[in-house]
Amino acid sequence: MLGDEEPTLLEFGDLEIVSVSDVDKGTNAKRIARRERIEKYRMCKRRNEAYATMLRMEGVAGSADLFSQQPSRTICVVNIGYSAEGLLTIQLLESVFSRHDGFERAVVDTAKPYSLVVFRSTNEAKVAFVEINDRPCPEFKNKYLLLEYVSPSIFTRLANGPMFGLTEDIAEALDESRGLYYVAGFISEQEEQAILAHIRDDEERDIATNGGSDKWHQIQERYVKHYGHSFDYKTKHVGEVAMTASQQLPLWSLAFIERMSECIPAHSMKPDMLTIQRYPPGAGISFHVDSHTAFTDTLSVLSLGAPVQMNFRRPGTHKAALTSLDLEPRSLLLLTGEARYAWEHAIRIRRTDLVDGTIRERRERWSITIRKVNETFECDCKYPDLCDNDAEAVQRLRARLRD
Ligand SMILES: O=C(O)CCC(=O)C(=O)O
Ligand SMILES: [Fe+2]
Which of 88, 247, 362, 393 has the most other CB atoms within 10 Å of its CB? Predict the structure, then answer.
């Protein structure tokens, strides 16, 4: 049989003699090579995503519409934007690029995932470009910075977007006439401390009874606990768990809920859901509208701990019509009508906020959101852009409600 044939000497000579440790090395080498391949694949994916995001945001079809093959003194950092380190981004970019002669300035847009850097001359820009492009950058946690040259005219266009220059221009005011109410100092410092102590006690008790994981959920980087009703983060709707005695609103919340309903009588409500969220520094909540069909008109947010900036935008207008509101500790925010139904709100995931021209580092913050569940799961608002009344998932929930 063929397999039984003695190998010829020549064939023996071709075989590698391997020891056991070489075998180990072999498998290790394979493992390392595999890891490297996966890492390369991930990098490639991230790179493509960074380019795709920028092209989409600028509304152009291909990179040739934005980037120039010809070196120029203006450079775009495709994958570094404001959100990662907040306003520190500008200082970090400065420290990366200012090592090179001719660096003039870095420009960061609060609403964009890329930034711009300007050099005195094209030759000086070229030196920095070659040194920095596509290499791990310690200032940005060893992320590979992706650089592209942009022509002066494209630079002017990008740098004159409504959000460049680090001013959060209030393109459209969101105020009481549009249903946003903001009450500074809604509770006193003592009340704030008492509520925080209650929250900590609740958390400790939850952890002591069953590790707390059924009550406290980590969503992005923040920690969330619901009272009254559960919330389904897949459907972005109230969960199916019915209100039970143990799920009633906490006793410590009743006094300020009462005060809340007296505060702006036109928007008083009898809430049946309370959500505590703990935001470690840098954590946030993505742009969203609280489901129209899940909750009634008025949403209230009590802020505790450190201040944070909340951003608002309307669908389709987020480049220009972004407005922000500083949520101070102990303040109450009420979103009703247009502000509740037609605008999205978010707390950007970043480590700093720009407030009155100064950089403020984020610290730990808590919020208590108070809502009333909409018993019919129906919404007949006049703001269809963000309305989920006709969403399939909501129709299914409504059908289940009727059964
Ligand atoms: O934590 C906040 O301040 C806002 C929370 C929020 O928007 C939400 O839970 O829907
Ligand atoms: Fe919300």
Answer: 362
pLDDT tens figures, 38-66: 888 888 888 898 899 888 888 888 889 99
Angle between helix 88-97 and 122-132 (nearest 10): 100
CA of 378 to the centre of ligand 1 (A): 22
Span(s) in the chain for CATH 2.60.120.590? 176-402
**75 CA distance to ligand 2 centroid (A)?**
37
pLDDT value, residue 319? 44
Q: What percent of the chain has pLDDT over 70?
A: 83
Query: 225 in ligand 1 pocket by Cβ < 6 Å?
Result: no
Distance 31 CA to ligand 1 centre (A): 44
Q: Kindly state the average pLDDT of the residues 108-119.
A: 84
Its ipTM equals: 0.99
Structure confidence at residue 322 as a pLDDT band (50, 70, 90): low
Query: Is pTM beyond 0.90 here?
Result: no
Would the CB of 367 count as within 6 Å of ligand 1? yes
Please, what is the average pLDDT of the chain? 83
For ligand 1, whether the C-beta of 277 sits within 6 Å is yes
**308 vs 91, 324, 343, CA distance in Å?**
21, 10, 19
Residue 109: CB atoms within 10 A of its CB come to: 21
The pLDDT, as a whole number, for residue 163 is: 45
Confidence of residue 121 (pLDDT cuts 50, 70, 90): very high
Q: Does domain 176-402 have CATH number 2.60.120.590?
A: yes
For CATH 3.30.70.330, the residue range(s) in the chain are 39-159
39-159 classified as CATH 3.30.70.330: yes
Closest CA to 109 of 159, 53, 174, 62: 159
Return phi, psi of residue 207, to 5°.
-70, -40
The residue with greater pLDDT, 21 or 344, is 344
| Ligand number nearest to the C-alpha of 369 | 1
The residue with tokens 């008109």 is 297
What DSSP string runs through 58-98?
Answer: HT-SSGGGTEESS--SEEEETT--STTTTTHHHHHHHHHHT
Residue 277 CA, closest ligand 1 atom number: 1
SS (H, E, C) 346-399: EECCCCEEEECCEEEECCCEEEEEEECECCCCCCCCCCHHHCCCCCHHHHHHHH
Minimal-distance CA residue to ligand 1 atom 1:
367
